[in-house]
Structure formats: C-alpha cells, structure tokens
Amino acid sequence: MPHTYEYPRAALTVDCVVFGFDGGELQVLLIRRGLEPFRDRWALPGGFVRVEETLEEAARRELEEETGLKEVFLEQLYTFGSVKRDPRERVVSVAWFALVKPSAVTAATDAAEAKWFPVSDLPPLAFDHADILATALTRLRGKLTYQPIGFELLPQKFTLTQLQRLYEAVLGEPLDKRNFRKKALSYDLLIPLKEKHQEGPHRPAQLFRFDPVKYERLKKKGFLFEI
Amino acid sequence: MPHTYEYPRAALTVDCVVFGFDGGELQVLLIRRGLEPFRDRWALPGGFVRVEETLEEAARRELEEETGLKEVFLEQLYTFGSVKRDPRERVVSVAWFALVKPSAVTAATDAAEAKWFPVSDLPPLAFDHADILATALTRLRGKLTYQPIGFELLPQKFTLTQLQRLYEAVLGEPLDKRNFRKKALSYDLLIPLKEKHQEGPHRPAQLFRFDPVKYERLKKKGFLFEI
DNA sequence: CTATTAAAGTGTAAATCACACACGAAGGCA
DNA sequence: TGCCTTCGTGTGTGATTTACACTTTAATAG
C-alpha cells in the first residue's frame, strides 16, 4: 500500500547503543546485519520508526525484536542527519543509549545475531554507527559524574568494589578505594544488606542495594560524583 | 511533483529556541503563525527539513528565513516525537537551541512577525512548543555551569557586572559580586580592554572581551562554573 | 569647585572539601 | 595453624569555597 506526499521525505529510524558491564570491561551490544547495505557488518540495533508509535516506543520495540531486551534504562542521545549517512536514501536516525544489568546481558546474548563487544575492541561498524557509539560513550562518561545512572549497569545487589570497578571501566582510570567508598556512601543512597558476598578464600564483601526513592530524586536533581 | 513510499512516513521539522539577553531578563524569540493550525498563536521559529540538507542546515535556514538571524551559536537540543503533537499528521521535530548577542537581537526584531518575550512572561504557544522551551531552559541552566557559553549572549565588549547579571538571570538567583569576579577571572579567559564603560554619575566599569582561543578550548573541555 | 550620587572594585579569615596514603580484619583452604 | 586474598577503615595537609563591608571613581547638580 503506497503512500504519497507532495515533497520527498526522509526515512526515520532509531538506533540504540546498549551498554552492559560484566565486572571487568564496559561492553556494547551489536547485531550482525543480514541485509545489504553493509551485509555481515556489525551494527547498532535499530530500525524504522512506525508512523503510529513514538520515538521511544520505536527504540524499545526494535531493541526487543533484535536483542530480546525489555525494560531497560533508555535515554535519547542525539539525532544524526547527515545527508549521505545511508547510501540508499536520506535516513535520519534518532539515537538512544541504553544501560542494562548483567542479568539482561545473558538474555541478550541468546538473540541469534547479537553479540557483546568490549568498547576497547570493536569491529568495524555499518553506516555512521561508530560516530554514534563515540557520542554515546562521551555522554555516558559525562553523565556518570553527575547522575547516579551507573547503578543501572549493576545487579540489584552489589558490592562497593563492583561499583568502583564500573566507574573505573567507564572513566578509564583507577580510583582510590577509600575516597571512592567515602564518596559513594556520602549520598546516603546505598542501603547495606544483611547478606555478604562470598567468593574465594578471603573476607566476604558487604552487599548493598540502592534506595529507589533517593535514587529517583538524585537522578532528576543530579549530583556531582567527582573522584 | 509527488513522492511515493511503500510505508507511511512522518514529516520532519526543526524548531529553534532562540535565547537573547537584554541586560535584565532572559528573552526568547517567537514568531506569530500566519497559517492554520494554531493561526495567530506564537511559536518557535522552524519548518520542514528538506531532503538534501542536514538537520543543522535546516535549522539555520529556517532561522534566517523567519527571523533574519545568521551565524548564531546553535546546538541540538532534543527530538520530539509524540504521535499527536501536530494535529494534521505525524510530525517529528528536531529541536535546537540558539544563543544570540544583543546586536543580533535588534536585527531580529525587524523581522515581520518575530518578537522577543521574557522567559518569565510567555504567551500561550502552538503545538508542544512550551515543552520544547522548558527543555531548552533546563539545558541552558545546566550548560551555563560547565561551559562558557554565556558569552554567546553578551556583546563583544562587556563588563563583569553584565556578565554577572546574565548568570543571575539564567540561574534565577543572586550571586556574590566578589566571589563571582574572582571565579570569572580565574579561568584566564577574559582580556581587559583599555576602554572603560561609562554610564551615569559613577565610577566607569572596566570592559573585557574573551580570549577566543581559550574560549574554544574551554567550550570543548568544559569547566565548572559553580558559584 | 564642592558635594552628592551610584556603581565599580577590592581582601581576608574561617570553614569545608579533596586528596593522598597503610594496615588490621575476615574467611577459605591446604 | 598458617597463608593467602580481598574487605574495610581514619587522619593530616593543602586547596577551595564561602561569607562579608568599605574605599574608589567619575559625572552631575548646585
């Protein structure tokens, strides 16, 4: 069923930069393209926006269709509109970035052609997706220091060391343990659990979860997590 | 000449939130709509993106066509994609925010149906433009504290008091004069001129301009202007 | 030419915050 | 029982931030 307009129109897509954290390095979820152009290249999950859905709905739908991920933290990143970014025709893409917890990470890996890559070792990407990814990384680094979004990448129960590893992985620099813990606890955002995290022949670590009420408040208001 | 596509496509527009500063209050440039829908309502300058121009080109073109403004500071803000934001059909709009100097302000006022409004006293706006404007204001407040973009709103030569008034207008709170000056000068960004600014029966003020090289560097790298 | 007016310009002390840094505690395992 | 590994903690120093009030300057009016 064709649709006709007086003037030519760009096609509108969404693309998602999905970050995950495996305890060591920051990872990005890519899918292998089955179709031309850029067949067999790795690309960001995404696709065309339908005319009856919002941009965010489109991003969530595509994410679920292509990777199985649902109910992730999702935030609009930037809209990419170079004229020749798609060789076929004019395509404008609204890019999003998503943060997912480790439990979701394994689910996503089941998706046929989806795979996690460490940000430090990415394959060549289709279209201008390398630009999009670079933009997303910059944004993630920036955001991490003034919003508590890092927790979106951790499991519900986590240790302070895990939190520190995450900050170190994103920021790309080692942090002082004592100062980090002092600062992390100073926001009164972390609730210590009764449980401990035992792993290996050494003192077990205290587990924490974050206080969802204070978390939401800080996410809106912002803070300054500079270490 | 009609254009036909297999699936329906959203129309793509740009809208610009143009901020100016008159020495007292922060102002926004609006234009009165001549056509339905929302005829005679005030709206953000903007219009349809042509298929052979980038999003930024579209924003600059519309801005010049509708307000006469050229070569302004322009930055992408957010893309608004609610399904019903335009009553006619699906329209997705990439919003931008612009900062202009007072010299440009008067030029813009000449444009037939363009007018400056103080942000504290806005008329009802067309479409979801009130949302867009609110988003832009939040962004401007945020940016001002970590990038030196405030200078985009001042004349080339300005006094420290003018700079302080601007920060106070945007942030909506009074600032301490001595601390403000100390901080503003500490970035080594302001160059004192030989001239003074004389106005009224009192001591004249030192005029400054900013160092364009350091300005660019700081704009990229960011700083932290918290007072 | 003197007094008045109004904004410009300036310094310091106290409090707070950021940073660097090292060692005892806990538990598993051999 | 001793060893290994990671967890968890406090303090002193220097830097930064904050709060705060008076003198300087030039124009204008009398």
What's this entry about, in short?
Chain A has 227 residues and is an alpha+beta fold. Chain A is 31% helix and 27% strand. Chain A is elongated and about 65 Å long.
Please write out the topology.
The structure is a homodimer of 227-residue chains.
Chain A: E1 3-5, E2 11-21, E3 26-32, E4 42-43, E5 46-48, H1 55-67, E6 73-80, E7 91-99, H2 102-110, E8 114-118, H3 129-144, H4 160-171, H5 177-186, E9 190-197, E10 205-210, H6 212-221
Parallel strand pairs in A: 2-7
Antiparallel strand pairs in A: 2-3, 2-5, 3-4, 3-8, 6-7, 9-10
Chain A binds a DNA duplex (30 and 30 nucleotides) through helix 5.
Structural commentary:
The structure is a homodimer of 227-residue chains. With 227 residues, chain A is an alpha+beta fold. Chain A folds into two domains: 134 residues, Nucleoside Triphosphate Pyrophosphohydrolase (Alpha-Beta Complex); 73 residues, Arc Repressor Mutant, subunit A, CATH 1.10.10. In chain A, the strands form two sheets. In chain A, strands 2, 3, 4, 5, 6, 7 and 8 form a seven-stranded mixed β-sheet that branches. In chain A, strand 9 and strand 10 form a beta hairpin. Chain A is elongated. The termini of chain A are far apart. The mean pLDDT of chain A is 90. The interface between A and B is medium-sized, with 30 and 29 residues. Chain A binds a DNA duplex (30 and 30 nucleotides) through helix 5.
